[in-house]
Amino acid sequence: MVGALVSSEATTFAAAQGHAPSHAPLLAIPTSLLERPPVRQLGIGSAHERVTTSSREAQEWYDTGLAHLYSFAWIDAAQAFNAALRLDARLAMAHLGLSFAYGGLGSLDGARTAAARAESLAAAASARDRLRIALRLEQLRVLSGTLPADRYAGTLDRALAAAPQDVELLLLRGEAASAPAGGGGGRDSDAASIRFFERARQAAPDAFAPRHYLAHAYENSNQVTLALRESEVYVKMAPAVPHAHHMLAHSLRRVGRTSEAIAEFERAAMLATAGARGDRMQLDADWHTHHNTALLASAYRYVGRWRDAARLLAAAFQQSAPLLPEELAKRQWPEFLLARGRPAEALAAAQALTSHAHPMVRAGGHLSGAMAHLAARRPARAAEAADAALRELRQAGPDAAVLAPDLRLVQGVFLLHSGERERGRGMVRDAVASWRARPGPDAWSETLFAIEAALHLVRTAEDPALAAELTESLRQHDALYAGTSLALAQAADARGDRAAARAAYDAAIAGWRDADDDHAGLQSARARAAALRTPGR
Question: What pTM was estimated for this model as a whole?
Answer without folding.
Answer: 0.92
